[in-house]
Write a structure and sequence with these properties.
Elements (H helix, E strand, L loop, with lengths): L4 H6 L9 H10 L8 E5 L4 H14 L4 E4 L11 E3 L2 E2 L2 H21 L9 H15 L4 E5 L16 E4 L7 H4 L3 H8 L9 E3 L4 H14 L3 E2 L6 E5 L2 E6 L2 E6 L7 H18 L6 H10 L7 E4 L2 E3 L5 H11 L8 E5 L7 H5 L8 E6 L8 H7 L7 E6 H11 L2 E5 L2 H12 L18
Parallel strand pairs: 1-5, 1-6, 2-5, 6-7, 7-8, 13-17, 14-15, 14-17, 15-16
Antiparallel strand pairs: 2-3, 3-4, 9-10, 10-11, 12-13
Helix pairs in contact: 2-5, 3-9, 3-10, 7-8
Length: 436
């Protein structure tokens, strides 16, 4: 399902941080968010990957799992998963329409002219309603933005996790690592165990202070958790146990850090009574798949949703470990609120040309404007136009095409491939963008 009329009506509501609206509706509905145990995951990057690793391990152990993540790449169904698979169109449509009726009743009973919910708030309540109705054993919930005032922060979780802290969404969350860490540490609850990934000292200190104040047992890389990458796989250790030679299903050294956070969460769940054998956890980490995260969809086509400097650095580190093709072209698109120079700079040593593009998302920066902003780089640069035009041309020219800069651009590329938009085209066999 690409969209739904009810959701489409809310698509321009934007971000409105705060818990009052969501709490009020959930109370009106009988608190479905309290019907299921929750794992709550925040972070600048990596939180979706951790959610999917934890989900897959729990499913491998025999649990019924609901997973809520955002944003979606191709279809809104991706935000709502049962046992790792997006919910089907018919089920999702039924729940959207049912929640819309409840929302209308709530607004009427409260004397509102219209429901004040944003798109994300509606989806968050929808996830809780769906998981409660489907009687899942546990829900894995990804924070949307920040943490303290994010709509998901109405839960009382079994375990909290924070993956990374970077200078992202500074207009909303703060301009320093300490301020942003404070917002993300806002998901911590009294006495609830916390697992964190590798953080810069200022952010780590905020996490430690917050956890201590709330009496949260905290595991962190270093004294509590370690990871080591070897040719045979990853060796991962928490205070509760270890796994060796783990061949992660997701690519990139940064996924080792994410896997360690996921293992910490799973070990905390096991300490809380969940039956999670090592072999189920191993399968979860090794079999997990997540679209748009260093994903090879076709020969010569790599898709990665890096949309901030930290993500670009992680992608660049992975590219440095890969064989260099004769001609690798960066097909780059991004949102209007991003700095393209900071995203592209780490990738320059690994690409031979940049072609800018744009998708149909309303917040996408126009490709010609993007090309103008990247003029300072001493590398061949072209405006490729809409991705429907740019991707076939670049894919036909390049030995390897790297699509990145935005999850929405990556989603558009994935959808195009699935529709057969690259059928009959071989990498390096077609005309260049500049020749057209």
């Amino acid at each position: 399902m690409i969209g739904h009329p009810i959701l489409d009506q809310m698509s321009e509501t934007g971000v409105k941080l705060g818990l009052e609206r969501v709490k009020a509706l959930l109370d009106f509905m009988g608190e479905p968010h309290r019907a299921v145990p929750v794992i709550h995951v925040a972070g600048t990057n990596g939180k979706g990957s951790v959610c999917m690793m934890v989900t897959r391990a729990l499913v491998e152990a025999g649990y019924r799992v609901g997973t809520y993540t955002s944003p979606h790449l191709e279809a809104v169904n991706e935000r709502f998963r049962l046992d790792g698979d997006p919910v089907d169109d018919a089920t999702l449509s039924d729940f959207i329409e049912a929640l819309h009726r409840v929302r209308t009743d709530w607004a009427d009973s409260s004397g509102m002219l219209e429901s004040p919910l944003t798109y994300f708030e509606f989806c968050t309540v929808l996830a809780f309603q769906l998981f409660a109705a489907k009687a899942v054993d546990v829900a894995v919930v990804e924070v949307g933005l920040g943490g303290r005032l994010d709509a998901t922060n109405v839960v009382s979780p079994l375990v909290c996790a924070v993956t990374t802290i970077g200078l992202d969404h500074v207009d909303v969350l703060g301009t320093t690592l300490e301020e942003i860490a404070g917002e993300k540490a806002g998901i911590f609850k009294k006495g609830v165990p916390v697992v964190i990934g590798p953080l810069a000292p200022p952010a780590r200190e905020v996490m430690e202070t917050r956890a201590k104040a709330l009496g949260c047992a905290l595991w962190k890389p270093g004294p509590d958790m370690t990871r080591e990458q070897r040719k045979s796989g990853w060796n991962l250790r928490t205070p509760h146990g270890a796994l060796s030679d783990v061949a992660l299903g997701l690519q990139g050294a940064h996924q080792g850090a994410n896997a360690l956070v996921a293992l910490g969460v799973l070990h905390r769940l096991r300490m809380a009574g969940f039956v999670l054998p090592d072999d189920a956890i191993r399968r979860g980490l090794e079999l997990v798949r997540y679209g748009g995260r260093i994903e090879r969809m076709l020969p010569g086509l790599i898709l990665d949703g890096a949309h901030n400097e930290e993500g670009a650095l992680a992608l660049a580190a992975w590219l440095a470990t890969q064989p260099r093709p004769k001609n690798r072209i960066l097909l780059f698109g991004q949102g209007q609120d991003r700095d393209p120079v900071k995203l592209v700079a780490p990738l320059l040593p690994h690409v031979d040309e940049i072609v800018t593009t744009q998708c149909a998302h309303p917040k996408a920066r126009e490709s010609f404007a993007l090309a103008e902003l990247l003029q300072e780089f001493d590398i061949p640069l072209a405006d490729g136009g809409p991705i429907e035009q740019a991707l076939p041309e670049v894919y036909g020219e390049a030995d390897e095409t790297l699509v990145t800069g935005s999850l929405f651009v990556v989603g558009a590329a994935r959808a195009m491939v699935r529709r057969g938009g690259l059928d009959g085209i071989q990498p390096g066999q077609g005309p260049s963008v500049e020749e057209e």
